[in-house]
Amino acid sequence: MPTQVSSKVTVGWFIILSLLAVCVVSGQTPSSYPKDTSYVSSLLRKGELLENQNAEAALTYYRRAYGLSQKIKFTKGYFESMRLLTFTLNNIGRYDEARRIAQTALRMARQDTSKRNIGLSHFALAVTAWISGDWQEAVHQYHRAAHYMRLINHVHNQSVIYNNLATIYEQQHMYKQALAYYNKALAINRRNPDDPRSIAIDYFGIANIYSRIDSLDLAKAYYQKAWRLVDPKDRDFLINLHNNIGHLYEDQGQYDSTLYHYRLGLDLSRQLKNPRHELHMLMATAQVQIRQSRYVPARSLLDAAYAIARRENAGLPELRNIYRNYALLHEGLGNYKAALNWYDQYITARDSLESVETKELLQSYEEKIRRAEAQQKLTQKQREIERLESDRNRQVLWLWLAGISVAAVVALAVIGWLYFRQRQRAKDNALVALQREQELVAIQAELHGQQKERLRISKEMHDDLGASLTAIGLLSEVLKTRMGAGTAPEVMKISDISADMMTTMNEIIWSLNTKNDSLNGLIAYIRSYAGEFIENTTLMVKIQAGEAPADVSVRGADRRNVFLTVKEALNNVVKHAQATQVILRIDPRDTELVIDVSDNGRGFEPQEKHKLRNGLTNMNNRMSESGGSCTITSSPAGTSVTITYPYGTGGTAKNTTNEVWPKPEISASIAV
């Protein structure tokens, strides 16, 4: 029933947007503003007074308020003018401009971090998307707006958003989702019994859904609930309510109840002095009278409706319905000539609206006229039409069969080609995989040989050189003991050199041993060395070490380069920094190892850096060789050496230590 749908959409827009305006204004806290801000508020009020009569004039006031709010950085005025400006632009179909303004407001709201303003901006974008027909975007923006309204506990605004979402789903015939959102809005509004109108609106929406899915008893029950809550002074709401209840009874064939509610709606329309509502109620009542074959009262109702339509310059949809009801009226009275005239006007209106349904009704009515004049002729024509239709259906059937056959042949050919291509690809992939597997086996064999050679070298160094160096060290110690205070400097030097050589050999053996090719092994070795090295000094060492993933592998050459660079940095601290504390930070990150050696010493001047050039150059060269870097920063407060080694594992290291490392006991054994 066109009248029914039109009134539903009208009341939906009016109620929902009115509620939003009320809840937004009520959510603002009163405060005193300077003169300029008061002028902004004055401009907005003037625009609201003109909005329904002259949209362009209202836009002029809103734009002035919008620009002034930006100029004086009046946040509240800016977002209020944005809301009214986008609302008016949407009403006159300027969706792109409304969307740009709302998007700009959203960016400003995010910078301002005001959840309320972010929610208002999302709401403006949602309304623009909805009115312009982009329902998916509207749903997304409404959900964002609801999220921010929940954060600031604006439950009433949430209920308005849920009502709008329900209306969108209802327009898409997604009644299950629409019903769910109406119930969400109802659950919120029930918490505030002082606002029965909002609850009535929710009942009204739920009833509309049940009416659409033919659950008429449930629809009737919810309409009655809404009726009990509506204020008798709220005539506009009551008119729509009686219209829908009457339509429900009309669908059930209970015409007396239908006429009762239509008459109530008609009386309220006249009290409200709303000619549009009166026109719809007159047409709805006349239509029921025609269905009951009560043509005389139906004619007076249609005459009154037609008079209002001409006086108010009603649109083609209203005139179309009037013409149709006049045609049905005269057809019922047997005045086919007059009925045909009204159907002609009806068809003209429908053609203007590009309606196929009206043309079909006219064809049906003309067929009735022809059957009345020459039944035999129409019967023969009908038989001819049926024969032609049968032939056409047969042709269509054969065409479908031919098309299906061709499609099947093409599909089989494509499937065969795809199968052949897949088999060929599988063969090619298998060949490539075999080649790669052979290459991998060769590489693994070569690596295995290298690892065995490294183990052999480290074992021989441990067994032969290690034993010899240990013997030299022990003999020099025995000699120093026997000689006592008269120990020659050369003997002391032999002892020191043998100890240094032992340490160096330990490092070489450690770097050669493939069992140590892991990042965690490198971290542990550096940590252990630093503790032992600083033990023999007056420095306090603080070690902060993280733990890398267990599957991170590091080449022996890279391990040695990183370790020697750290060793050189610690050695420089002990020899040159004049520090009291050194901090060693070992930080295994996602794709790289970062080691920082910092002291609280005196730093060094550029001329001193020249003296240290060889050591610093070696540190840089070692890290460059391993693809890393070494950065040195010095100031009077101390020196910091940052060593970076990329290993590209993609794993995330876990920090397990952030404490002062205890000084360990010195070990005389050789690392293996």
UniProtKB/TrEMBL annotation:
TPR repeats lie at residues 159-192. Residues 460-649 form the Histidine kinase domain. Keywords: Coiled coil, Kinase, Membrane, TPR repeat, Transferase, Transmembrane, Transmembrane helix, Two-component regulatory system. Residues 355-391 form a coiled coil. GO terms for molecular function: phosphorelay sensor kinase activity; protein dimerization activity. The chain crosses the membrane at residues 397-420. One of its GO terms (cellular component) is membrane. The keyword Kinase applies. It comes from the Bacteria. This is Tetratricopeptide repeat protein.
